[in-house]
Design goal:
Blueprint lengths: L1 H8 L6 H44 L4 H14 L7 H4 E5 L6 E13 L2 E11 L1 H4 L1
Antiparallel strand pairs: 1-2, 2-3
Helix pairs in contact: 2-3
Protein name: DUF4845 domain-containing protein
Pfam families: DUF4845 (PF16137)
Keywords: Membrane, Transmembrane, Transmembrane helix
């Protein structure tokens, strides 16, 4: 009897409950990454695109309307048909050759059934940033 108790007292390792909890936590972490990382990468690519197009527009003294047309054309070339320039940014300066924009939009991804993760992106892009 005494030998059995000392055997239980020295038992090591994770219980089934601990293993199940660890698997659940890993599953939630992976699900979060799948919902967040693509939106972050998409925002990075969009910011690069907007900066590059803004620099070209300002260098060529294009109007705000020409800039919007150029961005929409580039988005369709990139097969990003859901995104429209007008929905993603507003102008903070419409002066030809000094165009500046404020990017603000949200990306929603389903987490579990009726629970969503909303990624909000915001930032200013002007001539200094676009250089």
């Amino acid at each position: 009897m005494m030998q059995q108790l000392s055997g239980l007292a020295t038992q090591r390792g994770a219980s089934v409950t601990n293993i199940v909890l660890i698997i659940m936590m890993l599953g939630i972490a992976v699900k979060l990454l799948v919902a967040i990382v693509p939106a972050q990468i998409g925002d990075y690519q969009l910011t690069k695109l907007l900066s590059a197009e803004l620099k070209v527009a300002n260098d060529n003294n294009e109007t705000a309307k020409q800039f919007v047309e150029r961005v929409n054309k580039q988005l369709s070339i990139n097969a990003d048909y859901d995104t429209k320039a007008e929905d993603v940014f507003t102008f903070t300066n419409k002066k030809t050759g000094q165009l500046a924009i404020h990017k603000e939009y949200a990306v929603t991804n389903t987490f579990f059934s009726n629970v969503d993760i909303v990624n909000r992106f915001e930032g200013d892009i002007d001539m200094a940033t676009a250089e």
